[in-house]
Amino acid sequence: MKHFFALYIAFLLTFFVPNIAHADEVAKLGMHVLQPDEFAVAKQALLSPDTTAAESAWNFMTVPITLVDIEDPIRWQKQFDQAKIDRVIPIVRLTTRFENNAWQRPNRKEIVALINFLSDLEWPTADKRIIVFNEVNHAKEWGGSIDPASYAQDFIFASNWAHAVDPAFIVLPAAMDLAAGNTKDTSEAFWYLSQLYEYDPEVFSYADAWNSHSYPNPGFVSSPVRTDKNSLRGFEHELAFLENKIDKSLPVYITETGWRGTRATDRWLASYYEYALRHIWSKPEVVAVTPFLYKGAPGPFAEFSFVTADDQPTNQLLSLQLALENIAREKRLLSSVQ
Questions:
Q1: Which structural domains are found in the chain, ordered by start?
Q2: What's the rounded Cα separation, in Å, for the pair 147 and 196?
Q3: 38 and 316 in contact (C-beta within 8 Å)?
């Protein structure tokens, strides 16, 4: 019975955050969305009637913000106000503009503009979580080039600026594509991280938390029991890399993860999600998990999408809900035995 009770505790997948009013319950599992307008519907998607999830709990939502977005502060403030009502914790990823088949590298003025915009907003929570750009070991994510030195410079600048403007900022670095190899358009993730460290051995100390895209690769279709760097446990390899390079332990935010919905994976998705929830995302170092993507249809991310183009649940969402329901059912059973 003690063994089962320990499992029950692990299944909770929740924790308490002191700087959210009254130390309310915060669920680790959230969602990655493309627009702040999707916060409320994405949260509702996680609240299947047969789970123990509660609307009173807070959920993390990862969302990008572009240079175009900062021209509309009224829209963003409205969505942040609603997020406070809906108990959503934004994790905002800084983004520039897509030109010449690549996301452009920001200049210092643009970094300042993005951070100042976010600083001026009234956030749903005391802490303001931001990600300094995305998968920069892809050339198309960094102005068309693989340039660790320039990213290190810009990350350090962004971190310093954010903390100077508002100490409430929690700064996360760009996540790596852990499945990328060394090609003309990509670099292997740990080579890239090593280059950042070679440029400045203090570079990782400017991070307040770690950001990981721990996908089930290869092909976004692999079993969750895999343990290599391309697996759902990729964040553990990243933490091992950081262990002797930084004098603090970084909490982990897995801001992208999840499977492609294919004929091969569809029948296994519920069991895959259940395994991940029980054995991987429940790790104490993991603060948040926001699977990619709430609404990616129509478009190149349709296979990852939790809802269709007309907002109907896909097998992805039904499988995730079933996994949550199975865990909730066991929690209720174990609780009734105590």
A1: 2-337 (3.20.20.80)
A2: 9
A3: no
Those residues with Cβ within 8 angstroms of residue 41's Cβ, 6 or more apart along the chain or in another chain: 294, 311
Measured from the Cβ of residue 300, the count of other Cβ atoms closer than 10 Å reads 8
Q: Which residue has the tokens 């080579």?
A: 191
What is the four-CA torsion angle of 258, 260, 265, 268, rounded to 10 degrees? 20
Helix crossing, 189-199 with 234-242: angle to 10°? 20
Quick one: CA dihedral 153, 231, 13, 36, positive or negative?
positive
Give dist(CA 26, CA 13) in Å, integer. 9
Q: What is the pLDDT along the chain (338 residues), one digit of tens a residue?
A: 434 333 433 444 554 443 554 447 999 999 999 999 999 999 999 986 555 556 789 999 999 999 999 999 999 999 999 999 999 999 999 999 999 999 999 999 999 999 999 999 999 999 999 999 999 999 999 999 999 999 999 999 999 999 999 999 999 999 999 999 999 999 999 999 999 999 999 999 999 999 999 999 999 999 999 999 999 999 999 999 999 999 999 999 999 999 999 999 999 999 999 999 999 999 999 999 999 999 999 999 999 999 999 999 999 999 999 999 999 888 767 666 65
The HSE-up count of residue 93 (CA atoms within 13 Å, CB side) is 26
